[in-house]
Amino acid sequence: MKKGLILILTALIGLKAFALTGEIVYLEGTVDIKPNGGDLEWADFGTPVSEGDSIITGIDGYCEIELEGGSSITIMEESVFSFGRGSVGSGEPQNVFSTAMGQISYKFANLQDEPIITTPSVVCGIRGTAFTVITGADCSSLFIVSEGEVEVESMGQRVSLTLDEAVEVPRGAPPEEKYPVLSGSIDFDGWLEQAEAAALADPITTVEDLTDRLIYFISEMDRYHAMWEKGMAERDVQLALIKQLKEEGKDDEAEDIYRNILQPHIEQVHSYGINVRYYSLSALSLRRYTLGPLYVKLRTAHFKEKSDSFEEFLDVYNTFIEDYYAICQKPYLVEADI
Asked: What pTM was computed for the model?
């Protein structure tokens, strides 16, 4: 039955209803875009950005995105930013902006549907805010607020940040104590270098924690897929009833069921499909932008001589790929994603 969902996911590619959209208004250096369900391509001035798209900047890259309503997103060098839509935690799908790696700054204005901001291990909510999110190679995160308020959540614990406050969130841990910051006082490059050093110093634990995150994504895919399957079966029952009523000449009753029962139900089932896609793309991002660079760095470092520690790393890496990631790759991702 999972294969049948591919048709729904394919139909969802390019669907922009209720999603926030924007366009690239400025860029420098190497900036690529991975459109929803499309191939990686060079970004340019005026390139539209919307649900499911990812922006990837190179070592010399820089990109500014302007959203409808006047909000803006700034993507610094060696960063990966993604637009998404899904239910993070519970509730109906909403806009989700993700920092897979690097440094992203947000300035939101006049947003009726305020997005959720995520990193591979952190979720935060916003209220009319300007702030920066940094995600390191070890999946730790740093949040700095320059306007408004941000509520950062990790491992079931929350901390609220206001003007000129920051908090660090280690991978797989709750937020640390927040602290005051002065504008321009944080060495972002130095922080990212420390995060990379931490990932390389203990890559096995890093991958084990990433595997735990992947297992969570898979559980959410399966949960929403089961809800989607049940909803599709209920849809078919309602369609059969409507058809029967029309054959009996009860058009008014059929129309009432269609408008008041079937239409709302179809919208709900559609949201389940959106969530399946959101969590499947989150798994893909974890594999491509977080685990992938770590593997390359370690493979390069051990190019001539493979140590016991590297072989142990390969064991947990292969567990991630073969035992878990393969579960969601074919059933839940379409060919154009991969």
From this structure: 0.84
Render pLDDT for 24-63 as a digit per residue (tens, 0 to 9): 999 999 999 998 777 889 999 999 998 889 999 999 999 9
**Are residue 237 and residue 180 in the same domain, yes or no?**
no
Domain that holds residue 26: 17-191
Q: Are residues 66 and 133 in the same domain?
A: yes
SS (H, E, C) 201-250: HCHHHHHHHHHHHHHHHHHHHHHHHHHHHHHHHHHHHHHHHHHHHHHCCC
Domain final position from 124, 157, 191:
191
Choosing from 161, 191, 221, the residue where a domain stops is 191
Q: What token pair was written down for 72?
A: 């803006």
Structure tokens at 125: 């909510």
Pairing of strands 123-135, 179-180: unpaired
How far apart are the C-alpha atoms of 146 and 316, rounded to whole Å? 39
Angle between helices 2-12 and 263-285 (to 10 degrees): 90
67 and 186 co-located in one domain: yes
- Let me know whether 26 and 59 are in one domain: yes
CB 134 within 8 A of CB 167: no
The H or E element containing residue 200 is helix 188-201
Q: Tens digit of pLDDT for each residue in 114-141?
A: 788 889 878 888 776 899 999 999 889 9
Strand runs labelled E in the chain? 22-28, 31-34, 41-42, 48-49, 54-57, 62-67, 72-75, 80-86, 94-107, 116-118, 123-135, 141-154, 157-161, 165-169, 179-180
User: How many other CB atoms are found less than 10 A from the CB of residue 104?
Assistant: 27
